[in-house]
Amino acid sequence: MLTTLSTDTYTEFCIRCVPVKFRFLSEMPRLLLYVLMAISLSAVYQILNVSRTRNLRQTTEYMYRTTTPAVTLSEKEKNVFLQEETFALREVEGDPRGNKNRPGLRLLSSLYAHRPAVMAKYSSPSPYLAEFIEELKRDLTVRGVAEDPWALARKWAKPKSLVPESAPGLADVLAALSTAPVVAADSFDGGKQLKLLLQFEGNQKAIFKVMRYNRTAVITIMNSGKDRHNGEIVAFHAARLLGLQMAPVAVGRRIQLAKEILPVASKRLAKTFFTDENGQLCFSANLDKGEQKNIQCPTKDNLTEGVVIMWIPEHLKLLEMNYPWRHYYKSKRPVKWEQDETYCEAVSSGIWANRLLDFIDMSVLDFLTQNTDRHHFLLADGDHDASVIPIDNGRSFGDPDIDYMDILAPVLQCCRFRAATHARLVLLSGGGLSRALRELLRLDPLAPVLADAHLRALDRRLAHVLAALSACSEKKGGWHNVLS
Q1: Mean pLDDT across the chain, nearest whole number?
Q2: How far apart are CA 295 and CA 276, in angstroms?
Q3: What is the C-alpha to C-alpha distance for residues 65 and 43, in angstroms, rounded to an integer?
Q4: E strands along 73-194, which residues?
Q5: Which residues are catalytic?
């Protein structure tokens, strides 16, 4: 009780305890003692209170550090630098050019300047997001729409769209890809990754890319390592979210090698199968017997995990073309787009004039997924208005803490953008992209498809794209000069 009384109140209380005539005489020493005790106890209480507040603050700071670990520059200074809250390319192992003397990326500084305002403007999810996600989920969950999923997918495939924006029956197509019996299997010759060419019952072909990394693996060196099979799955769903309808259909699948592949394997594929020291059946699917880098063994319960990518229907005659903003990682000299800030003018006035917005859309998809290996694309021959088909999306999701900003070069140099794509970015801002993908990917047979760190990184990168467009609007004198 003494600690709750002020000095004056405590003095009055003590004075009332003794006769009046002794107030200032006989009881003075005791009165002073009580006063000193009250003051001392009050001081102790204040000290304890300050200490408790300090401890609480330190505990809060510790909790924050443990839930949101700070990344110091020294940990990644060999590869990246920190610009505000953004990791951007500086030096890349295997790329002696680094980010030095690259005037083609000059608008990056303006992107960083616009980013805080963009983050503030698009800080919360759109009220229309939930309904949008539900519409896409219906396509992935409602089964029994298509009696023949392969026929439906072939009917969908057109020069400007492989899958329509509203796609009832997509759930049937994905289910067929992930469960249909394999009637033939062969090595796939294209590229350097471990892939199989499968044929399903019903005369449908597909590519099967096997899993090479677990979900939380971090690949810190640009364009290094093997393809990430889950990146192909994410690219398909992310493209649909952005309104891009040309990404090949992809779904996860687990295959039992001994029962599903070896009995129907071609002779050259069958020769690559062997039993390891643990008694598991493995394969390399490599025509060069001296090459042992691509050996793959089952990951669990004698099952091999991977992604099935639907073969684009044969009625579309496809051309494989070089991407104008492709990287040449082994070159010691910067390529033209890295040196020339006006490189887009040459692209837009040449043979790719009517594909420019497709390239820009594809660069946004690549940037969000951090696909660092975009060097070519497909195009349906014979149609002047055919849209670009982004294939090989697996060299993605390497490090969630790094954003290779040069992937955005088409956006930064051209400052032209589809209004429809911009509207989708706004719809998916404020955490909407990670939320949408989390719900869509949850429906895949391999769920969880993507680690939480990579999902969060998608939201950060989307804000970068909106900041780049805001910088373009300022540079071009208004949004009417940017959006088409």
Answers
A1: 81
A2: 11
A3: 33
A4: 80-83, 86-89, 182-187
A5: 373
